[in-house]
Design a protein that fits this description.
This protein is α/β, with parallel strands linked by helices. The protein has a single domain, classed as Rossmann fold, CATH 3.40.50.300. The protein is 50% helix and 18% strand. The strands form 3 sheets. It has a 5-stranded parallel β-sheet. Helix 2 packs across helix 5 and helix 8 packs across helix 9. The model has no long low-confidence stretch (mean pLDDT 93). Bound molecules: 2'-deoxycytidine-5'-monophosphate (DC). 2'-deoxycytidine-5'-monophosphate binds next to helix 2, helix 5 and helix 9.
C-alpha cells in the first residue's frame, strides 16, 4: 500500500454496487469507508419511528426538530463488521428494510436533511484516506476529491442484485416490486432540486453490468497506479 492518501468519491445510481466497490477499495487501500446513503436512511428511520415520515407524506417541520441532537455514526460490531449507529444503537439492519428504501428518496430531497448529512460527512472527511459513496459526493460534498468514479449498470441487473441482497437478509420480495423501487429512486435522485445525481465533469464512468468485483478492483488498480502512483 502507498503512503499517499487521497479522497475517492464513488457516485452513481442505486444498486450499482457502489458500497461493495467502495468498501472493498477502502479495505485494500487501508482507507476509511463511508456510506453516505446510510445517513439518509438513518434520518428516514428516525422519521418513521417518530411518526413524521410515512406513506402519507413527511412532516418536515417535526423531522427537522428530530435532527437536533441526533447522533448517527459509523462503527464496527463485535464481529468487526461495519455498522451504522443511531444514538448509540446499531440500526444497520433496520435502515436496509424495504420500508426505509421506499421512503428515503423524498427525505433525501429536503435541504435541511442534506445539510445535516453533509455536516457529518465533512467531519469524517477532514482526514484524507477515505472512500465515500453516494449520489453527490464528487459534485457537492467533496468537489475537490482527487478521484471521482461514477457507477452505472443495467437497471434489470441492478434489480436482480438488490433482490438477491434482500433474500440473503431473509426478506423475500418480487422482482417487479424491486425494479419499480429502483426506477422510482432513479427518477427522484436525478430530478430533485437539491444536489441531483449527475456525473461530475471530471468523474470516470464505470459500467459494471458485466463485471465481477475482482474485475472492478483490477480497473481501479490501473487508475490508481497510472494517475497517482498508488499501488493496491
Ligand atoms: O445508496 P443508498 O440506496 O443507500 O441511498 C439511499 C438514498 O439516499 C437514495 O434514495 C439516495 C439518497 N442519497 C443521496 O441523495 N445522496 C447521497 N450522497 C447518498 C444517498
Amino acid at each position: 500500500m502507498d503512503a499517499r492518501k487521497i479522497i475517492i468519491a464513488v457516485d452513481g445510481y442505486s444498486s450499482t454496487g457502489k458500497s461493495t466497490f467502495a468498501r472493498t477499495a477502502a479495505e485494500r487501500l487501508g482507507y476509511v469507508y463511508l456510506d453516505s446513503g446510510a445517513l439518509y436512511r438513518g434520518v428516514t428511520l428516525k422519521g418513521i419511528e417518530t411518526g413524521c415520515v410515512g406513506r402519507d407524506g413527511i412532516d418536515a417541520a417535526r423531522l427537522e426538530e428530530c435532527l437536533h441532537g441526533l447522533d448517527i455514526s459509523f462503527g464496527r460490531d463485535g464481529q468487526g463488521r461495519l455498522r451504522t449507529f443511531m444514538d448509540g444503537t446499531d440500526v444497520e439492519d433496520r435502515i436496509r428494510s424495504i420500508e426505509v428504501s421506499s421512503l428515503v428518496s423524498p427525505v433525501a430531497e429536503l435541504p435541511f436533511v442534506r445539510d445535516f448529512v453533509d455536516g457529518i460527512l465533512q467531519q469524517y472527511g477532514r482526514e484524507k484516506g477515505i472512500v465515500m459513496d453516494g449520489r453527490d459526493i464528487g459534485t457537492t460534498v467533496f468537489p475537490d476529491a482527487e478521484l471521482k468514479i461514477f457507477m452505472t449498470a443495467d437497471r434489470k441487473v441492478r434489480a436482480e442484485r438488490r433482490m438477491n441482497e434482500m433474500e440473503e437478509a431473509g426478506k423475500k420480495i418480487g422482482f417487479e416490486e424491486v425494479l419499480a423501487n429502483i426506477d422510482e429512486r432513479d427518477y427522484i435522485d436525478t430530478h430533485r432540486k437539491t444536489s441531483p445525481l449527475t456525473k461530475a465533469a471530471d468523474a470516470i464512468e464505470l459500467d459494471n453490468s458485466d463485471m465481477t468485483l475482482e474485475g472492478e478492483m483490477d480497473w481501479l488498480r490501473g487508475i490508481l497506479f497510472s494517475k497517482f502512483g498508488i499501488c493496491i
